[in-house]
Design a protein that fits this description.
alpha/beta, five-stranded mixed beta barrel, 13 helices, 35% helix, globular
Length: 405
Amino acid sequence: MRVSKVITLGCRLNIAESDAIRAMLPDDDLVVVNSCAVTEEAVRQTRRAIRRAKRERPDARVVVTGCAVEVEPAMFAAMPEVAGVVANTAKLDPSSFSPFASSEVEKRISTSLDTDGRNSSHARGFVEVQNGCDHSCTFCIIPQGRGPSRSLPAGAVIDRVKAVVDGGAGEVVLTGVDVTSYGDLAGDSLGLLVERILKAVPHLPRLRLSSLDPVEIDERLFALIVGEPRVMPHLHFSLQAGDDMILKRMKRRHLRTDAIDLVQRIKAARPEIAIGADLIAGFPTETEAMFANSLAIVEACDIVFGHIFPYSPRRGTPAARMPQVEPEVVRARARRLREACAERQAAWLDRLNGSEQRLLVELDGRTGHAENFAKIAVESRLPPRSIQSVRITARRGDTLIGVPA
């Protein structure tokens, strides 16, 4: 039987949107590539994914959507493997894919997104709450791919969360381009939305927040982060740098001390919270001293989940016109940041040895994540999508080994 396939690159928001696309596609020789444009490397990976998909399924029609299509539509439309492109703003409209479906199944493409938010391939479900961005970070191309910030109505978000939980997911991840800006058009806030979700969906076991802008965490959201047990003790911040001059040249809205003070306040109130962060290595004009401040923020903010990006210029952004750092220096600094984060993560995981963790079991029955997002593997199979107490007995690389408690 022919089965449509969705290939996802990039962020958690893309994962959530791919779930919605997958739910509305028919069984057909159709491959949808949901692309990413955050870096030049992401665009190259998208092109590679397209070519690989066509090699593996030569009779399939490959359709490309996502941020890279918005930024460089002509390039993707010209690829011989591509049957067509769908605008980012249209990819959740089922009719956008009808022209690429074979005639006998075209009429069966659903016009409803009732299953949006379900994720049959994971124990977690990703739910979009917001899209687009109103900020103008000098390195970022994403506003060109996603447009201005806009929030989904709280009622629609709650309905999607209910659908995810009713579908069997043990955890919901709220996603967006700039999640903490939620409420920009709805007169709402992310903290208020989280309160409403927790109240309206009492059978939701675990709620996780995706990448947060530290400057937008208000007191209501802070109180939920440190005081609500169903909000997972794991935060990922969009820091990007640890040097004030670089942060200003990036047009970020926080300074180094803002990030450090926020993490100290959070961990003072809820010490078990694990911190992740995005960091860019080799931003234009970055000196060794400036880089040293970014390197030092790994310790200052206790970053155990580092997402490290070697800076790459994106055509059309202000940073691309700034004096560039030599590519080999950029790569070396990215490597040093990764090593610092890996060392800190290893020490943190070692401290968890002997502890008891609550594991959300993936579909394989043998792996999953703790509440603090530590990866855990168990020797004996456990019920998929269940939440199990496990005792940690060892560490193997970046994964903890556990046994049922």
